[in-house]
Amino acid sequence: MTFDFVPVWKQVTPALGKELMAFWRSNRAIADDSAAATRATQAVCVARNEAGAICGAGTAVIKVLPRLRQPMYYYRQFFAKSMRGRSQLIPFYQQARKALQDYNASLQKPESLGILIETENAKLSSAYHHAYEPAFAATFIGYSPRGTHMYVSYFDGAVLQQPIPLRAPVAAARAGHASSTPATNSATNSATTSVTPGRNSGRS
């Protein structure tokens, strides 16, 4: 079986959005229509099978971790069962990463420095356990509050932007931790606390 990877970042039409919603619903990935509609607008790349049907999708949304204070794409991808176990994980990710990197390279000021990856799947965490994973071009940065591995993959030539201010509650919490615990613990415990980077913020 062969698959076709199609970049769709910033090119999601209403028809494709409905197709993605149906794909996630039929595979019991995202049952809520409102959440699925929002995720569809974040599509980076889709995979189609020989019949032209969607069998995989990657999405991204801007997030800022308190430990980084830099805008990153929080990236997720989902495959239908027909696409799993066919050595498509890395090639699909690499295509999606290229689409995001090329888009940012075209901007006068990049909206993201790279990709943030959270390995929510236990099998993936056990398969990819190095501090640096060449296949993903990603470096381990710690654990999320859920205990999952977190990696960042910076785009070529990424330059640090002005640090994004922390929300007041987050800053206060970090100050409290600093007075009673080592700084490394404070950074790890707040791994996925949301920070508002302007209009692009939000969890999905």
Task: Write up what this structure looks like.
The chain has 6 helices and 8 strands; from the N terminus they run βααβββαβαβββαα. The chain is α+β, with helices and mostly antiparallel strands and 204 residues long. The chain has one domain (4-189): Aminopeptidase. Strands 1-2-3-4-5-8-7-6 form an 8-stranded mixed β-sheet, with helices on both faces. Strand 3 (54-64) and strand 4 form a beta hairpin. The longest helix is centred in the middle third of the chain and has 17 residues, at 89-105. The model is unreliable at 178-204 (pLDDT under 50).
Provide a brief overview of the structure.
The chain has 204 residues and is of the alpha+beta class. The protein is 31% helix and 25% strand.
Which class best fits the helix and strand makeup?
alpha+beta
CATH homologous superfamily (4th level) name? Gcn5-related N-acetyltransferase (GNAT)
Strand content: 15-25%
If you compute it from the alpha carbons, what radius of gyration comes out, rounded to the nearest whole angstrom?
18 Å
Number of separate domains: 1
Order of helices and strands: EHHEEEHEHEEEHH
Question: Key features?
Answer:
Aminopeptidase; 204 residues; single chain; globular; eight-stranded mixed β-sheet; 31% helix; alpha+beta
Helix and strand arrangement:
Elements: E1 4-7, H1 14-26, H2 33-40, E2 43-48, E3 54-64, E4 71-79, H3 89-105, E5 114-119, H4 122-127, E6 132-133, E7 138-143, E8 149-154, H5 168-180, H6 183-189
Parallel strand pairs: 4-5
Antiparallel strand pairs: 1-2, 2-3, 3-4, 5-8, 6-7, 7-8
